[in-house]
Design brief:
30% helix; single chain; 5-stranded parallel sheet; 18 helices; alpha/beta; 5-stranded mixed sheet; 573 residues
């Protein structure tokens, strides 16, 4: 698809997701938008639009305006969804914080964002109080669950917000005029600042426009039918849960079924209860589901299309067991958006989703849509090379060498992208112009991922470049782990790096630490300290103490030697 055709398609779909929400709220107000499974609560398009309008008006009353950043530090995904749409209603910027953050990670992101307001919930108040001395005075809006709510905690309810914060209730935002605000919002206006880990330095805020969200959801939207129901248990501080699932669903007129977190034991009950036809499974979720005892009911479910990332080599085995008609693989990034998509036709007609559960486009319609937009469709019965990501529709990709020269088929290099239409990738890193210039050198955005392409322009993922670690669905930099462990009073220096996980396609974290002279620290003591300072997804799987870290003549740590050492110890070499 050429640039002009693509831009016309973006224009046809509207400049932002609010247009789709408001249109359906007018035309089909009673259509279900969100089913919140934790409390069996249902919100229609009309109700969601009214609540978002009320939130927007009340945020304006508190002084927020177009272009202001509003931080969202919430676990509850329904409240997060309401806050997100309410923030967009006034043209403000949704700036979510990973709800696992505490201490230095939390204070850094709040200070780096510099929000006008912060929205949180009662269970997170103590975390804000803990870092109050590191934060400026701040207006804080708190969601306070009622006793009958599933996330109510009597212990948390008794904790008061620190005096330096100005407290407001989230419930107060839900009152008042629910009519559309009519704020002028353009495709190029900033919608979000989403933080992502780099290979060096602290996490960076990725500045995304409303068109970024259109590009990120573009390929997925084309494959959705308004009758589809999307299942989501991914956190809404990530682009996958917030945008790939929720925003894509709203833009397509679908219902979205939401739970707080993934549960392998409860997954299929939820699919049946919600009638979900679409879902996303990330890495270790897949083996956890496959490890459940097999039953003769496994195939009797409404789930017909599952996106798996990264795509496991045994995808066809998963599809056959659970009767999944189509599996997709791809590539998504906070900065570039949705770079690639490829579809795998796993089963023959009649082998997949039972007729009584089937909804949305037929199998042939899905394949016809794929042909129209240029998504490759492969057979699940044939061997598919490891790392399959598919083709790019909305971006211009390339494989580059160290001098940013394009490489040909079969040659491995760094994946880079260019926009086909304005504002469809990140605008840059928030308040970090040097990092932005480096990432966009020679007019390419450099992803930091190693890939290759074949003769058919299908792209394959090889590995991360530099210090990226992927674990529990989170991208982490080795710098972040090292920076936190270096704060332990008995640790002199340390090195963190990934090794292949024992289960799934992600990483386990290894830390080698050198103690200060005369210190004696046990692994158990260090783990207890780590547990109080770092979110669980950052905890190292393996900790080793060493007299000194191996270094190059220029004093760079030779992590490859440490990796060889631990792999030999674990019997993986």
């Amino acid at each position: 698809m050429n640039r002009s055709e693509l831009e016309r398609e973006f224009i046809k779909d509207g400049p932002h997701v609010l247009g789709a929400l408001e249109e359906l709220a007018e035309k089909d107000a009673h259509k279900l938008l969100i089913y919140y499974g934790e409390e069996e609560r249902r919100l229609t398009y009309g109700e969601m639009n009214r609540l978002a309008n009320r939130i927007g008006r009340n945020l304006s009353t508190m002084g927020a305006k177009k272009g202001d950043r509003i931080s969202v530090f919430l676990k509850n995904p329904l409240v997060t969804a309401l806050a997100m749409f309410g923030i967009w209603k006034i043209g403000a910027i949704f700036s979510p914080i990973n709800f696992n953050y505490q201490g230095r990670l939390l204070s850094y992101q709040i200070n780096d964002t510099g929000p006008k307001l912060l929205i949180t919930e009662q269970s997170m108040v103590f975390l804000l109080n803990d870092v109050a001395s590191q934060l400026p005075d701040l207006d804080v809006i708190v969601h306070q669950p009622r006793r009958e709510d599933h996330d109510y905690s009597r212990e948390a309810a008794g904790i008061r917000l620190g005096e330096k914060f100005r407290l407001s209730s989230f419930d107060d935002l839900l009152t008042g005029d629910g009519s559309n605000l009519g704020v002028a919002i353009e495709y190029y206006d900033t919608a979000n600042i989403i933080y992502t880990s780099g290979t060096t330095g602290a996490a960076k805020g990725v500045v995304q426009s409303h068109r970024w969200m259109s590009q990120y959801t573009f390929s997925g939207r084309k494959l959705l039918h308004p009758d589809d129901i999307i299942y989501n248990d991914l956190p809404l501080y990530h682009v996958g849960g917030a945008f790939s699932n929720l925003v894509r669903g709203v833009w397509s007129g679908c219902a979205v079924a939401i739970w707080d977190k993934f549960s392998p034991r409860d997954f299929w009950r939820r699919i049946h209860k919600s009638g979900a036809s679409r879902a996303t499974l990330l890495d270790v979720m897949i083996p956890w589901l496959m490890n459940l005892p097999e039953t003769d009911q496994d195939r009797l479910n409404p789930l017909k299309f599952v996106h798996m990332q990264p795509l496991p080599q045994y995808h066809h085995k998963v599809a056959r067991r659970f009767g999944i008609d189509f599996v997709s693989g791809g590539y998504g990034q906070t900065e570039a958006g949705a770079g690639f998509l490829g579809i795998i036709d796993e089963l023959e007609e009649g082998e997949g989703t039972p007729v009584e559960f089937f909804k949305g486009y037929s199998r042939e319609e899905i394949k016809a849509i794929a042909r129209k937009w240029g998504f490759p469709v492969l057979s699940g019965k044939e061997e598919i090379k490891k790392g399959f990501m598919g083709k790019s529709v909305a971006l211009e990709p390339a494989v580059l060498n160290e001098r940013d020269e394009e490489l040909g088929p079969g040659q491995c290099g760094q994946l880079a992208f260019r926009s086909k239409v304005p504002y469809s990738m990140l605008d840059g890193y928030f308040n970090k112009p040097e990092a932005t210039l480096e990432a966009f050198r020679n007019l390419w955005f450099h992803t930091g991922d190693a890939v290759y392409k074949d003769e058919d322009e299908i792209y394959y993922f090889v590995d991360r470049m530099g210090g990226f670690i992927r674990t529990r669905g989170e991208n982490i930099s080795s710098y972040q782990i090292e920076d936190l462990i270096h704060r332990h009073p008995q640790v002199d220096v340390c090195a963190a790096f990934p090794i292949p996980a024992e289960e799934g396609e992600e990483d386990d974290i290894v830390v080698y630490a050198v103690l200060k002279p005369g210190q004696n620290l046990s692994e158990e003591e260090l783990r207890r300290w780590i547990g109080s300072e770092m979110p669980k997804f950052m905890w190292p799987k393996h900790i080793r103490f060493i007299d000194d870290l191996p270094k190059t003549p220029t004093n760079k740590v030779e992590k490859y030697k440490l990796k060889e050492k631990i792999m030999m110890e674990l019997g993986k070499r």
